[in-house]
């Protein structure tokens, strides 16, 4: 009886005094917009975006915290901007490499690439376009082989496509249209 009374009192005490921390927001706006600093896609020249960035409403909510780019296994994976490797290893059975981007503030922007076989170790300096790994075999994340490319500033997830300048996002060829009323020569 005493034990039950003690447990009931303890449960009441915990219920009134313990306040678990709220999950970190993942879709709040970044402190400043990321610059269009990438000079190339991380795989290929204009890969198809198989799944776009879809930030969750809450820290642990459903969503997609990056973009999935179509690419065959064995494709070179390149850093999109200069920086330093902040992580290279396994996460949940998948190879991951993260690069903190130079000159992006405090805390810095960090890009992530998975599933990859990292070619560099933590601390390695990288230049834009330098190969950081090789795309590994599909892990079930995509229906076909893909690179999951992410972008974060501290705990806030951002759309990695914002790193690409508008001209690099243009997928179609340039077309010249005739000027109405212009004389033909």
TrEMBL record:
Entry keywords, A to Z: Signal
CDD domains the UniProt entry points to: M23_peptidase
GO molecular function ontology, one term from the record: metalloendopeptidase activity
Pro residues composition-biased segments: 20-36
Organism superkingdom: Bacteria
Keyword presence, Signal: yes
Domain spans labelled M23ase beta-sheet core: 63-160
Signal peptide: 1-24
Region of interest: Disordered: 19-38
InterPro entries: Cell_wall_metabolism_enzyme (IPR050570), Dup_hybrid_motif (IPR011055), M23ase_b-sheet_dom (IPR016047)
PANTHER family cross-referenced by the UniProt entry: L-ALA--D-GLU ENDOPEPTIDASE (PTHR21666:SF289), PEPTIDASE-RELATED (PTHR21666)
Descriptive protein name: M23 family metallopeptidase
